[in-house]
Structure formats: C-alpha cells, structure tokens
Amino acid sequence: MPQTRPSICRFCHAGCAILVDIDDEGRPVRVRGDRDNPVYRGFTCEKGRQLPAQHRHPDRLLHSMRRGGDGRHEPIASTQAMDEIAARVSAIVAEHGPRSVAVYTGTCASRNPAAKPMMTAWMNAIGSPMRFDSNTIDQPGKAVAAAMHGMWGAPPQGFDDADVALLVGGNPFVALSGGVPNPDPVRRVREARARGLQLLVIDPRRSETAAAADLHLQPLPGEDIAIVAGLLHVIIRDGLHDTAFVADHVQGFDALRDAVAHFTPEHVAQRADIRADDLVACARVFGSARRGVATSGTGPSLAGRGSTLLEYLVMVLNTVCGRYLRAGEQLWNPGVLLPAMPHKAQATPPWPAYGYGEQLRVRGLTDAACGLSTAALADEILLEGAGRVRALFCLGGNPAAAWPDHDKTVAAMRSLDLLVTLDIKMSATATLADYVIAPRLTLEIPGTTYVSEIMYHYAVGFGLPVPYAQYTPAVVDPPAGSDLTEEWRFFHGLAQRMGLQLELAPNFPRPGQAPWELDMREPPELDTLLEHLYRNARVPLTEVKRHPRGAVFAADPLVVEPADPGWMGRLDVANPEMLAELAAAQSPWWPHDERHPFRLLCRRHVGALNSSGLDLPKMLTKPYNPAYLHPDDLAAMGVETGDAVEVRSETGAMLAIAEADPTLRRGLVSMTHAYGDVLAGDARFREAGSNTSRLTRVDADYDRITGMPRMSNVAVAVRAATTLPTANADATTTA
Ligand SMILES: Nc1nc2c(c(=O)[nH]1)N[C@H]1C(S)=C(S)[C@@H](COP(=O)(O)OP(=O)(O)OC[C@H]3O[C@@H](n4cnc5c(=O)[nH]c(N)nc54)[C@H](O)[C@@H]3O)O[C@H]1N2
Ligand SMILES: Nc1nc2c(c(=O)[nH]1)N[C@H]1C(S)=C(S)[C@@H](COP(=O)(O)OP(=O)(O)OC[C@H]3O[C@@H](n4cnc5c(=O)[nH]c(N)nc54)[C@H](O)[C@@H]3O)O[C@H]1N2
Ligand code: SF4
Ligand SMILES: [Mo]
After folding, report:
1. Do 559 and 330 touch, CB atoms closer than 8 A?
2. Structurally, how many domains does the chain consist of?
3. Domain span holding position 579
C-alpha cells in the first residue's frame, strides 16, 4: 500500500519537517514540506525534495568497498571489512602508537546521531588525541574568539523580536546557516521586515540575501576587519553603545575605543571601496536599534589570516551594544533535546583559547577552543618522524574535494598506510581509500532535530528560534539486497575486534555523571543509544516521540536569573593579542597583487551541500561550477558565458567555464568549492567542474591560532583559455 510518513530532512542542518510518500515496494518516491508544521510551515529546499533520488541513486553504494592490488574497488562484506580494518589498525597502533591514528569528521558526520559519539568513544579507547573536524576549515575563529572574550550567561537576543540583523559575509537564503533562523529564511525576513526589522548585509556580491537587505555594503573582499572596526568606531564616537551594560559587565572599553580610533569612516571607505556615508548609516542603524545581533558567515572566515580577529570584533560589536537577554527576560529557546541550563545575567570571563593539549608538528599550531587544525592534517600525514599519522578514518567528510591545498591533500591521502572513509558514494576521497564503508541513509534510520538545535552553541545568530523538536523513526527499509551498516555500528564492531571496551558519554554530561560501559558482545539498538545520549535533555525523548510531526515544547518557559551576588566576571573587549593584531591591520590587509588582480570568492549553491548532492538530477543540469564574473570583466577579456577560462593563483591553475554575473563587483570571480574530478582534473572540467582548492595552500596567509588558511579572497589572474585538454590529457595552455 502506498503511504505517507512524517520525517525529518537531514540533508543539511536545518532539519525541515517533511512528509515522505512511499510506494508499494516500500521505496521513497516523493518528499514535500509538512504544511501543518508550526515552525517550518511546509518549507523545504531543492536538496530535501531530492531525498528519494539520493536514496535511490544508481551510484549509491549498497555494499562496502575494498581497493584491490590493481587499485580498483570491489564490494566486500561489511563484517569482513571490519575484520581486516581492525587487524590493520591494531598493528599500526602497536608499532607506531595511538597518535598515528586520526579521525576526520565532516559535514555529514551527524546524519546518524550516534556516529560521532561512538567514534569518539573508540578514539578514547585507543587513546589518540588526533581528532579533526571540518569546523576548523569553516569558522574556527568563533570558538577561539569566544574564549578570548568570555560569554554572557544568557542567550543573545533572538531574531523574532529584533529590529535589526547585521550579516557579515553569510548568505542564509541559500546556505540555511547563521543570521536568519533556518526554517524558511526568505519568508522570515519578509515577515520581520514587515514588522520593522532592518536587514544589513556586508558582502562583495549582491547575494540572494543581500538583494533583500535594507542596506547592502558591497566592499572589496578581505577588508572586514577594517569594516567592523569602522562600525565600532562610529558607534562609540556617536555614543550609540550600551553604556550601562559596558559599565557593569565589560572590561577594556577604553582600550577598545583607542584601538578603533584609526578606523574612521573615510579610512575604511577608502580601503574597502565603499561610501563613508554608507558605513556611517550601517553603524547608526545597528547601534541605535533596540534589539538584534551581528552574525558573520564563511566569507570573512575563509579569508584566512586575521579571521579570529574578525570573529572577535563581531562579538565585541554585539557586546558593546549589549545585545543579550537580561534578568527576567524569557529565553526564546530554552532547549528541548538540549539540557535545561541555568541562565544568569552575568558574564563568564575569558578562558584559555589555545596553546594547550596536543602540539601539532607544523606552524606552531596547538589544540585550541576550535579543536585541532584540519588544515594541518595533510602535513601531519606527510611529515616523516615520530607521531606521524598513518591511518585516517573519515566520517561524513570528503577531504579530497573540500580541504584546502588540493595537491597536498591528495598526496597525503595516497601516502597513508590505511585510509578508511564512511560514505554513501564513491566520493573523491573514497576513490583514494583502502576501504569505503557504506552506511544506511537518513530515511532508513531514526533521527532527531538535535543538530539544528545545537547550532545555538555555535555562535550568536545560530540555532532554532523556538523550543522545537522532532523525532523520526526509520521510514523506509534499506534497498533489497544491500549490505549497509550504520556508522556507529562500524566503530562498535572495530572496538569488539580490537578487544576495546567502549564508554559512551551522554550529551552534556552532568558533573560526576558516569559514561555508559557498552556491552561489547551485542551492540544496543540506535533508539536505546539515543535514550542515553539525550538523557540530560530538558524534554525527555519519550515525550518528543509523542509528537511525530514535531512540536514546540513551550510549557515551562525559562527566564534569565539575576546575577549571583558579588559576581565579578566581565567580558573582555580588549584582549591584548587581538588588539595587537588590530593595530597591525591599520593598512590594507590584502594589498593589491599586480600579477593576480582578481579575487576568488566562495559561494554556495542551493542544490548541493559542499560535495553532497552534486550527482542529483537537478545539479546535473549544470554539472560544473561556473566561474562567475562581472559582465564587463568578461567583455574586457573577450570571453562569453560558456567559454573556458584559466584561473591562476600563486599556487596553481585550473580551467573553468565562465558565466556572467552582474551581482558581483568588478575584479571578482565567485565559484563554489568541492567540485572537480580528483583523478582527471582539468581533463573533465566541463563534466565535473573545477576544484578551487587547487588554487590555495595551507602554509601561507593562515590564521596563526586556528590554522585557517586563505580559502576565499584568493588573489588570482583570469584569462581566456585557448588550448584545451583532450579527454585523456590535462595540459593547460593559455593565450
Ligand atoms: N575553497 C573552499 N573550500 C571549502 C569551503 C569553501 O567555501 N571554499 N568550505 C569549507 C567548509 S565551510 C566546510 S564545512 C568543508 C566541508 O568539508 P567536508 O565536510 O569534508 O566535505 P563534504 O563535501 O561536505 O563531505 C561530506 C561527505 O559525506 C558524505 N555523506 C553524505 N551523506 C552521508 C551519510 O549519511 N553518512 C556518511 N558517512 N557520509 C555521508 C558525502 O557523500 C560527502 O562525501 O569544506 C571547506 N572547504
Ligand atoms: N545549499 C547549501 N547550503 C549549505 C552549504 C552548501 O554547500 N550548500 N554548506 C553548509 C556549510 S558547510 C556552511 S559552513 C554554511 C555556510 O553558510 P554561509 O556562511 O552563509 O556561506 P555562503 O552562502 O557561502 O556565504 C558566504 C558569503 O560570503 C561572501 N564573501 C566572500 N568573501 C567575503 C569577504 O571577504 N567578506 C565578506 N563580507 N563576504 C564575503 C560571499 O559572496 C557569500 O555570499 O552553509 C551550509 N549550508
Ligand atoms: S533546507 Fe536543509 S533540511 Fe531543509 S529541505 Fe533543504 S536540505 Fe533538507
Ligand atoms: Mo561548513
């Protein structure tokens, strides 16, 4: 019998409530938004609506794969793969020690809610500190800046009653990321503007979100430090900051005022090539608003050197304007699957930001509030010597598509003794892997909206706007004849075979709360694991399960408590290292490079999530990532939409297909990452696109604390490509 079942889209972190139509044979055939859902109100995007195509994709892995001596991958039974991998990793640990084993968790690592916790338990049992995450090639400065600045003991102001929202280089209409609540961002902005919200966007491109803004500053890329310092300058100069909040809860205000004195509107305008009046207007709208926060996205973070400072300045902007909930105010989202935590109107002072824990062997990088730098992992694999990483396990990530410094990454993947990736398809990384473990896909496993909820802890401007949660059971069976595991079962299975005892900590463990010593003979069911992981939740999972189409759990609201008597903690707006870096930023941060006069910017496409989804039917209508350029720049080069261009940086060169885009400033190229055929490179740029990481390197222009390299705002030269490679050669000759 065909039927329809409610579920959660887990393609991206937005967690949309969906209805899945299932055919007679139990296969998903159609996904649509659940119009009756109180928060998502029927919203979905192109990716979610293609979940059936993703689940039934002809290239989906239905069996795990092993690479043979001839380099070709053949199916292998998942139990045999576990036997072989356990033996190999045990031997590597015995010979080279635990540090020789590393894990990398990517964007899709949380699709199965027990995967990452079980992988962590396995790494704990091995005793290896080498855990890397895609966050450190994303916005790692956020966590480090928070440590240097301290944290207000209650949430920032929410979006739904804000009268201003400032976005520094994010595009939530496409990315469903920070700045605007994810459930239906376009509609939310429309409704908010109708009640008086002013949307301010700083982006070198007139992005989809910028086009809806009340004020769009369209600067040169890479000057965000100067721009935000300029906003602070005007706000402080005009007395628009929250003097009472600053007096009671902030330290270093005078030093901050002196540090931004240099960043006058005229100075910033000249550097960033914007109008001084527009900067002043932006500062006045933000500063004189009653409520509303500033959020930054990947654009400025991927600019590399100084990205921690930029995140710090955005935090400071919110702090001097006092944009936090105060005693007596009700939390917009007290948490559902997150624990109920006490919220107090007081500042937690700064805590150590970096320089502790594991020392990496390159660039003086150490463990930090953001975790270990993923941009250093290729070096940790390639560099000879004690501690070298020899085995890498990738969970829901795709280094060979998405990491910076593509050539170095591929060389590192090839030089490993053991590369295992858990992936639903033969990704770029899978083609280089010894083993590819094929997991069940989201509609085949239970899931929750925990990931959407926990984004709240990522930074100001993230998270669900109300206490909403949903649980879904598996709504379809895995395809007939498949041998699919779940990612957490794989790590449990390895531990069994390696004789390791796993201990699983619940999410947000309470002080003194013991982890669960798992039964190493028989793994529990995923639902039992979820009961344990969410045992500290504000609303018990059993209660969430009673609302299969999702619900807002608004009973029992939480109110911000007053500060503890005698509390002395203060937020620091004058961290000495940050102010020293700001002093060094008094002249243009990225001077013009005559030989590479264009700047390559990051950009996201609504139909894919990094490299996931590029093989879906909608994306295949244009299988490559165009090099978007301003029409006048194309004309000046004698290039038309559809022509091949060569994009060259100091590091490398690649071919791409030009496309006119009037939303850009002149002098910019905007391209989506994670495309390209890892083996064929330029030879297949028309069929598979071009990997922008070929133009970046990890050891130049990086942030000294997070290791974040310059992955956007990359200086490049662009010109018409004349001689093109044939299908089996990849020579690039240009005029
Ligand atoms: N030049 C440039 N580089 C960038 C960026 C940029 O803007 N420009 N962005 C950076 C950012 S923000 C990030 S987060 C990183 C992303 O880096 P990664 O997270 O490493 O890259 P993804 O392409 O998202 O990899 C996700 C992988 O998970 C697989 N997958 C999908 N579903 C499942 C599942 O259910 N289970 C498992 N096990 N696997 C699954 C997909 O097939 C894919 O291979 O890239 C960074 N790199
Ligand atoms: N559809 C879709 N959704 C996604 C993803 C995806 O690949 N596709 N990826 C997911 C991931 S991993 C992440 S981290 C989030 C990211 O979410 P966002 O941070 O919102 O990322 P983008 O949409 O790339 O927006 C970055 C914007 O920064 C601008 N920009 C570039 N350089 C600069 C600069 O120097 N200064 C300023 N001010 N702006 C600049 C770009 O023009 C672009 O509009 O999205 C997530 N959601
Ligand atoms: S926004 Fe994200 S969660 Fe929602 S339908 Fe699209 S991919 Fe799925
Ligand atoms: Mo990301």
Report:
1. yes
2. 3
3. 141-349+571-584
**255 within a domain of the structure (yes/no):** yes
DSSP conformation class of 510: P
Q: In 3-state terms, what secondary structure has residue 480?
A: coil
What was the pLDDT predicted at 735? 34
One-character DSSP codes across 608-646: -BTTBTTTSHHHHTS-S--EEE-HHHHHHHT--TT-EEE
Residue ending a domain, choose from 437, 471, 491: 437
Hey, what amino acid is at 321? C
What is the per-residue pLDDT across 180-215, written as a single tens digit (0 to 9) for each?
Answer: 999 999 999 999 999 999 999 999 999 999 999 999
Q: Do residue 251 and residue 374 come from a single domain? A: no
Based on the fold, state whether residues 305 and 408 are members of the same structural domain: no
Does 405 contact ligand 1 (Cβ within 6 A)? no
Segment 411-437 mean pLDDT: 98
The predicted pLDDT at position 726 comes to 62
pLDDT of 734 > 70? The answer is no
Where residue 176 sits, what CATH number does that domain have?
A: 3.40.228.10
pLDDT of residue 707: 97
Q: Which protein residue has the closest C-alpha to ligand 2 atom 37?
A: 169
**Cα dist from 668 to 13, 251, 477, 715, 717, whole Å:** 29, 40, 47, 9, 10
Nearest CA residue ID for atom 6, ligand 3: 45
Do 196 and 287 sit in the same domain of this protein? yes
Q: What is the CA(13)–ligand 1 centre distance, in A?
A: 12
Q: Whose CA is nearest to atom 4 of ligand 3?
A: 16
Ligand 3 neighbour 12 (Cβ under 6 A):
yes
Question: Within a domain: residue 48?
Answer: no
Select from 7, 12, 111 the residue to mutate for testing ligand 3; criterion: most ligand atoms less than 8 Å from CB: 12
Rounded distance between C-alpha atoms, residue 12 and residue 175, angstroms: 9
Q: Is 701 helix (H, G, I), strand (E, B) or coil?
A: coil
Spatial contact of 669 and 639, defined as CB atoms under 8 Å apart: no
Ligand that comes closest to the CA of residue 314? 2
Distance 108 CA to ligand 1 centre (A): 7
Write down the pTM of the prediction: 0.97
Q: Which atom of ligand 3 is nearest to the CA of 49?
A: 5
Residue 445: nearest ligand to its CA? Answer: 1
The domain that holds 115 is classified in CATH as 3.40.50.740
Atom of ligand 3 nearest to the CA of 44: 5
10 CA closest ligand 3 atom index: 3
Q: How far is the CA of 485 from the centre of ligand 4 (A)?
A: 26
Beta carbon of 374 within 6 Å of any ligand 2 atom = no
Q: Which ligand is nearest to the CA of 13?
A: 3
Backbone angles phi, psi at 408, to 5 degrees: -65, -40
Q: Are residues 343 and 381 in the same domain?
A: no
At residue 732, the pLDDT reads 41
Give the tokens for residue 6. 């409610």
In this structure, are 322 and 188 located in the same domain?
yes
Asked which of 560, 584, 608 is the last residue of a domain, the reply is 584
Q: Which atom of ligand 2 is nearest to the CA of 673?
A: 7
> Which one of the ligands is nearest to 174 CA?
2
Evaluate whether residue 710 is within a structural domain.
yes
Residue pair 293/156 in contact by the 8 Å Cβ criterion:
yes
CATH of the domain at 655: 2.40.40.20
Q: How far is the CA of 32 from the centre of ligand 4 (A)?
A: 25
95 and 215 in a single domain? The answer is no
CA distance 691 to 404: 10
697 in any annotated domain: yes
Strands 198-202 and 366-368: unpaired
User: Which residue's alpha carbon is at the smallest distance from atom 8 of ligand 3?
Assistant: 48
Q: Is 107 helix (H, G, I), strand (E, B) or coil?
A: coil
